[in-house]
Amino acid sequence: MLKRLYFPLVILFWGTMNVLLWRSEMGAGRETGNEVPTAVVWQRVLTAPDDSSLQVLCQGRRAGYSRWAANVGEEVATGKVASEDGEPEGRVRRLMGYTLDFDGNVLVGEGMPRLRCSWRAEFATNQAWRKMSLRLVVRPNIWEFRADAATETLTMLVEGSDGRHERTFKFAELGQPEALLLALGNPLAGEWLRELMPTPPRAAATPHTPALGLAWEARNDWLTIGHTKVRVYRLQARLLGRHQVVVIVSRVGEILRVELPNGWRLVNEALFEF
């Protein structure tokens, strides 16, 4: 009697486990929209194993190309004795920090030169940023911005047909963007930027972080790729208080899609295959 029940019980157990597995992987609609700590998603982004190759789209048309790369900085501590071939014996890798790199180019408008940009950020092991730099090039003009958390300074460099100009500001001065643009010689842009800024006063910056006006929130979500639904993270924030920015991140930290104001989007090349 027990031998006759053995096979049906095994089949029942196997079927039950497969149903439960399917529900956890594909039927987890209850998880959609659930809030996730942003630090969890940020850690995935900082340690993503692969680079993200992104197509730049404007109103659905391809306008450029970009690449996003995350790297983990490590230091090798060697042992007392090294082998003959130069490899240290008993070496231990120690986490030193993280870096993020973004570079790309985009055609802003017909008959205009391409905008080339490169951005780099360095982070400590506790995810606090240490240095950032941004370089924008529209020939013959170059704009560079370098921020340092240790000295709490932002350096702006402008190079063009009228020469090279460089200014350094303290983070405390960043609450007056129109004053910064006036210092760079563009009073009209200062008036335009003042109109874009949100009416309520922004929260004060922390001792090591300039106020960017962005409060990110992260949630679980699903993304349809071809005929398959995959789990993703959805990051979103308000830019200047009124424009929404959405970033779709894979479960391992790869950037899949970025939605920006005015119809601009960055889409992972892998998604174009479907």
How many beta-strand elements? 14
Reading the helices and strands in chain order gives HEHEEEEEEEEHHEEEEE
Distance linking N and C termini: 53 Å
Provide the residue-averaged pLDDT: 76
Strand content: 35-45%
Shape category: globular
**Spatial sequence of strands, sheet with the most strands:** 1-10-11-12-13-14-2-3-4-5-6-7-8-9
Specify Rg, calculated over alpha carbons.
25 Å
pLDDT below 50 for ≥5 consecutive residues: which ranges? Answer: 24-30, 78-84, 187-193, 195-213
Helix content: 10-25%
Task: Briefly note the structural class of the backbone.
Answer: alpha+beta
Total DSSP helices: 4
Largest sheet: 14 strands, antiparallel
Task: Explain what this protein looks like in three dimensions.
The termini are far apart. The protein has four helices and 14 strands. Strand 5 and strand 6 form a beta hairpin. It has 274 residues and is of the alpha+beta class. It has a 14-stranded antiparallel sheet with strand order 1-10-11-12-13-14-2-3-4-5-6-7-8-9, with helices on one face. The chain is globular. Helices cover 18% and strands 45% of the residues. Helix 3 runs antiparallel to helix 4 (187-196).
